[in-house]
Amino acid sequence: MTKITALVAALASSFSAHSALAQYSQEPLERERRVELVGYGGVGFTADLGVSSDTQSGNVSFDGAPVYGALLGFRAQQNGYAYLSYSRMETTAYYRPSGGFETSGQANVSFDYLQAGGNLEAPHGRVVPYLGLSIGATRLAPLDRSGNDFSFSAVLDGGVKFTLTQLLDVRLIGRMPVSFVNGEAAALCVGGAGCAVRYSGQPLLQGQALLGLGIHL
Questions:
Q1: 211: closest CA among 181, 166, 175?
Q2: Rounded to an integer, what is the distance from CA 186 to the centroid of its chain?
């Protein structure tokens, strides 16, 4: 009986040691995968923006254009990341006076977004849907002269990650930036209304369809 008890105790001790060793060996792997670096690109679309001057008012429309950017994420919980992101789009803006159908001027402009936020994931094996929200600033600037307009902005983004390896994934991304522009329109000297124009105060909506590549560190 004593031998049996000793054997059971030895097996239990061996199993506990093996479990502790396995847990110890897995913990560094989990810590190594707490950071993700994502690069993405695609196409963006922008809604019309109302502007006005002392003598007239109208709308500015924008061409659809390529978008590119990057995201640095830090795992904040088991199924979520906190992240910093940057994106840029260069496009052409067209001014159209109220009641008119023809554009009376145009300018090449850029949109730069710098955001901080977080997302939540719903993993299903190698397929990981997620939804995120971030806030930050938008910079609207002309490409061929000076002038910058800064505004508060928020970005709703979601997508699906497809895990290829522990280190790599590809993802489909949809983003909806919203900028709350107001005040003088220094960036939109597009003719017609001249340069002494003001934003109407309406939110500026954009939509982006993107393809990304994620690296997990």
A1: 175
A2: 26
